[in-house]
Amino acid sequence: MWRNFTINHMVAVLGLVLSMTSYLFLKRYGIPDKICVGAAILALLVVAIFWSTVLLGADDDEE
């Protein structure tokens, strides 16, 4: 099971944790639901965009 667990999976899990913690942090201080959900989505997008640029920057020449 752990053999197929790659760094991409780890980044996805950490992005999910970041979005959940940002939602719960804002919710704890009484911020409206729309803003909490928007912050969680924004956190996911930031992680996805960052990791996409990291993967695009990696030069894997298989020739």
Q: Short description, anyone?
A:
The relative contact order is 0.14. Helix 1 packs antiparallel against helix 2 (33-57). The chain has helices spanning 7-28, 33-57.
Key features of this structure:
2 helices, elongated, 63 residues, mainly alpha
Question: Helix and strand layout, with pairings?
Answer:
Layout: H1 7-28, H2 33-57
Structural account:
The structure is a single chain. The protein contains two helices and no strands. The protein has helices at residues 7-28, 33-57. The N and C termini lie far apart (31 Å). The longest helix is centred in the last third of the chain and has 25 residues, at 33-57. α1 (7-28) runs antiparallel to α2. Helix content is 75%, strand content 0%. It is an all-alpha fold and 63 residues long.
- Stretches where pLDDT is under 50 for at least 5 consecutive residues are none
How much of the sequence lies in strands comes to under 5%
Helix content: over 70%
The major sheet is characterized as: none
* End-to-end Cα distance: 31 Å
Supply the helix-strand structural class.
mainly alpha
Tell me, briefly, the overall form: elongated
Mean pLDDT level: 87
Question: What are the secondary-structure elements, in order, as H or E?
Answer: HH
What's the gyration radius in Å?
Answer: 15 Å
Extended strand count: 0
Number of distinct helices: 2
